[in-house]
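Dock 6-O-phosphono-beta-D-galactopyranose; give full complex structure.
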Amino acid sequence: MSQFPKDFLWGAATASYQVEGGHDAEGKGLSNWDVFSHLPGTTYQGTNGDVAVDHYHRFKEDVALMAELGMQTYRFSISWPRLLPQGTGKVNEAGVKFYSDLIDELLKHNIRPMITLYHWDLPQALQDKFGGWASREIVDAFDGYARLCYERFGDRVDLWSTFNETIVFIGMGYFTGQHPPKLNDPKVGIQACHHVFLANARAVKSFREMKINGQIGFVNVLQPNDPISDSPEDRRACEFAEGIFTHWLYDPVLKGEYPAELLAMAQQAFGVPEFHPGDEQLLKENIVDFIGLNYYKREMIAHNDDINGFEMNNSGQKGSGRGLGFKGLFKTVRNPNGVYTDWDWEVYPQGLTDAIGRITHRYGNIPIYITENGLGAKDPIVNGEVLDQPRIDYLRDHIKATADAIAQGADVRGYYPWSFIDLLSWLNGYQKQYGFVYVDHENNLARKKKLSFDWYRKVIESNGETL
Ligand code: BGP
């Protein structure tokens, strides 16, 4: 007997900037990433998504592979500047047609689309016009964009999420500076994050007002944080980390309010987030229908009075990153007993079960989708075959961990490995591979099924029984 409910959804995920290419095709406006990735020193060896894996032109071939894999659902994102080159105003009908055709192609193969409205590619025009997320004007702009998507695709799509991983695009965009707009300014960052929560609430409100037949959720990083020792200092540091990484990001969308203690601290230290009349009510009245969880790793946390900043391993050279630290609060440290990937991410399947338990404990038994989970690796090619056995092992263990969470009562409804196909990793180029399908950058971006492809096909076919 399968440990998964019979209507459990098996899928895979991607994001627009990472697969589409066609960065200026047929009237698309530039995104913040189109601009940022061309600035010297911002990405791994100057890689960018100008062409990516050319999904924009090859989506039919890709959907055929999804169908062959047996995917029941596909999570992808819409590029806002492809639909609205200036962010608001005139619609680029060629962009609408691309997504419309993609959706039809998926449905033709019985693959249920899950749309992410914002997976980090902001219209550059809005960054230039009013500073993007830093300005409250973004809330109206995002709502207009969301409404356009509901109008054009809401007749055929019933699974939606507003945002992908606020911690990453706000944290790295406004606090540590590795993503656009490259700031190190907590005050601006905290307020920008508030605008994301407001934009989410407005888009949820519009979804309900427009009576779109479906569910709308929010996607967050799921990161269990555990203290490196039992000392009161490390435990307190870990509470902070859990508060910032989890409660700050989940409470506003699942409870409609900020965690009180942290809110008071932020307002005292930085004078933000600044609320306008109506903000509280808007958040309270527009809780999402489900939460999407992106799980890759756990972090071990220690008390910190030295490190400030974030040094990442973006090369795949083990041990080359230094982790993240907020001086006086906490830092991430290496688990001496942990198993790590070449990018220094701890492989810890039990953390997925634990972290889902923490979510249901705090927020009740809400519907959950695992919206990303996967192993980034340089896959070996032997006699022309892509032998990604470590990916199979990783996914198998995490699928078991998901089954354990379900056995403990969690309402997990679907699983989307990251990623369907090898794609551009934001800061790690094309060498950090995640897909079931390999893309040959030396040979006209030809697609090739990996060892994991056939394995995952059987997982889907058996509803998770054959692992
Ligand atoms: C998540 C993002 C994805 C994807 C993934 C892997 O944070 O939502 O877009 O990139 O992480 O990350 P990376 O490519 O940095 O290994």
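Observed: The CA atoms of residues 56 and 379 lie 25 Å apart.
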